[in-house]
Amino acid sequence: MTDEMTWIIQAQHGDDDAFTNLVETYQKPVYNLCYRMLGEMEAAEDAAQETFLKAYQNLTRYDRERSFATWLLSIAAHHCIDRLRRRRFNSVSIDEDEEGQTDIPDHSAPDPESEIMKHQQGERLQNCLQSLDPTDRAAVVMRYWQDCSEVEIAQALKLTVPAVKSRLHRARRALAELWEEKPTRMRHERKPYGSPAF
Amino acid sequence: MDHRPFEDWLLDNQTLSKPQERDLNAHLRTCSACTAIAEVNLALNSVKEVAPAAGFSDRFQLRFAARKQAIRRRNIWGFIFLTLSALAVLGWAAWPILKELILSPVNLIASWISSLASLWAAVQAITRAGAMLFKVVPGFVPVYVWLAILMAAGMWSLVWVVSLIKFTKFSQGVKNENDH
Fold first, then answer.
1. Predicted ipTM beyond 0.85
2. Which domains does chain A have, with CATH numbers?
């Protein structure tokens, strides 16, 4: 039996320390998914914490035949999708510059120029991601950042495998169209859920 | 060559053969739309995972403890509310009896004793009537009727036992032709 399965079983029996081990193991992928979905560090932290709380509350329902990582990412993705829908409903406008983007390039790296380029590329991609439909965004993040298979994405997002393929196809096309636009224009562009410019 | 296959290769992230790669590279030099898709694919495959600020699990522990405390408090208040509600409903339902008991306890106890006594008398009367019938009825029924009743009971028991054996011996459901 793996360490992970031992922790899961112990946590299912009420061992909080075992659950903390699971939090430490999965904090990065869960946080990354939340960040890529929500685009804000603070909201991502909150969503990631809520994801682990929900996971703890529903741990007895976890099917041990399934991957724990996929189950956890599924909770995170659904939580973020709900949050984005609520945000859109409330029409909260968040300015791009206030988003707390702290993915700062490493200037002490051996090749700082390439680091800056990578950082700019990452920021540009993050801006493009924010324009996608929340479910498409979750599929893209799970596919590229978490290396999930199409079957795992389908299980996590409660979709069929052809639907996942179609969503990924559509998302890549949308990202490419946004990618072609100038990054400067994208930085000042309002989000679809934002209030109209005055 | 048409633009469509190149776009599909890129959008579906297909694995390409060497000649296909060569054709795609040639196409990318002339097509900005496909170049954008290729750049996006490259960016998606090279971006880093973002990590939370240090101390994430400590912050989780704090939130976890606060949530547990809130749930415990909610459960206690819920229990108190339910208990009080149940007591209120019981009090409301039992109010006529309680009222009687408070106002005239002797009358109420006397009426309870009288009800118990009449119930006891009814039970005794039914028992006596049953015993009387048990003694009288066999004298009215002829012997051949008793024999017919016994035979019917025997047949019914036989059918019941045979059915039971039949249903427990063979599995129920569809038998597969290929199972041997």
1. no
2. 3-91+118-188 (1.10.1740.10)
